[in-house]
Amino acid sequence: MASSSSPSVLLFLLLFTIAATAKTSESLSTVFPRAIPGSALKQVPNAKKPEPKFPFKTQYFPQLLDHFTFTPKSSTIFYQKYLINAQYWSHGAPIFVYTGNEGDINWFASNTGFLLDIAPSFRAMLVFIEHRFYGESMPFGKESYKSPETLGFLNSQQALADFAVLIRSLKQNLSSEGSPVVVFGGSYGGMLAAWFRLKYPHVAIGALASSAPILQFDDITPWSSFYDAVSQDFKDASLNCYEVIKGSWAELEAMSAKEGGLAEVSRTFRTCKDIKSVYSAQDWLWSAFVYTAMVNYPTKANFMMPLPAYPVEEMCKIIDRFPHGATNVSRAFAAASLYYNYSGTEKCFDLENATDAHGLHGWDWQACTEMVMPLTCSNESMFPPSPFEYKEFSDQCMRKYGVMPRPHWITTEFGGSRIEQVLKRSASNIIFSNGMQDPWSRGSVLKNISASIVALVTKKGAHHVDFRFATKEDPDWLIEQRRQEVEIIQKWIQDYNADLKQ
């Protein structure tokens, strides 16, 4: 079976491509590399959608198309998918809600074992709500992505309102309106969880926002921080590894520029078909290194791809084992192959013909409207230096959708600047959990803001690793992080129940 990658899609929790290619590609991601966790599966069109490992009942909720206007069209109903597990729940017990990301909700449920692990001790009901315009929750069916007129109803504010309406209706139908609700989310879902607590404190008593880069907007976080962090992960594993990858880009460019160069690149990368652009090979390498840094988990995992424990270190071992005189490109290719072919079953790689198997391309619209998170590559990065050009980015959005981005809307709607002073006085009961090996951690909250707005930061943690199923191989620091999360949530619920009795 061939392994595919997608050199031109925007993503992630998402996809990352080469900003320097902006003048040669119409991909929006060339000027706005993005990421939102689940979206990396966009790279794996032949992958089977994993089913949840615990029993969920699938439900569909009649949801309003538009929560914020009173025009005739706003009352249109679409059916929003959600998953529910009431195995441990009893009347009045907590309801734990996962605020869905940009993709099929089954996939997120399958990779959020933490909630199943803790549900018995809390006697909690688990609810995973699918984000509008993703998975099966399509307001206009197959026409949902047809035009800006339909996509205009895809934004974070509508999604948060969806969650609030569904949760309130669920509690009413259960005759359990006193049940405390805690929301959980990772990456973009973590951003939504934190924002939900800010916008709907009467619906949720607290939020656990894992790997949530709510400060990756405007100029709050340095634009180069993401790729600097990816580079630091590899440099920490091996300085030679970092230098080989850093030197591979120019070497690859020079190889392709020779007569018959693309054919040589195709042979080097074991492509199923000759590639048409060197950028396909660059993007293939780029994505492998970025995603591997994101999911540098301490145990074997199959989140984005099947990978060993600490895959960054394993990639660098591959590079460091090469004999003196080997090319940087051959070493980089061998390392990236760990990401795409850890099983060793791929005979060739398809670099230019990926499909959107998980229905994630709605993020392209979100990136072109409200989710403007500029990313650049500094001279310290192992990637080629590249700027963020807003005009070029906005021009591409205009050509693709006929809309202009609103780069400051998220911070206007949810805040971000001076977040310590603002949230200290206006919010409570939010956990921001991060691992410093996750490049998105730089855009999250890394220090305690108050006694109830807490940052749990681990040195070796990767992208929402705390949400994964517990295993016997989990290191002590991860066990402790989860223990603290459970302890804090228990206190929220105890305080809530005490207030009810007054």
TrEMBL record:
Family classification: Belongs to the peptidase S28 family.
The protein's name: Lysosomal Pro-X carboxypeptidase
Keyword Hydrolase belongs to the record: yes
Keywords from the named record: Glycoprotein, Hydrolase, Protease, Signal
Signal peptide: 1-22
GO MF annotations in UniProt: dipeptidyl-peptidase activity; serine-type exopeptidase activity
Signal is among the record's keywords: yes
Organism superkingdom: Eukaryota
GO process annotations (BP): proteolysis
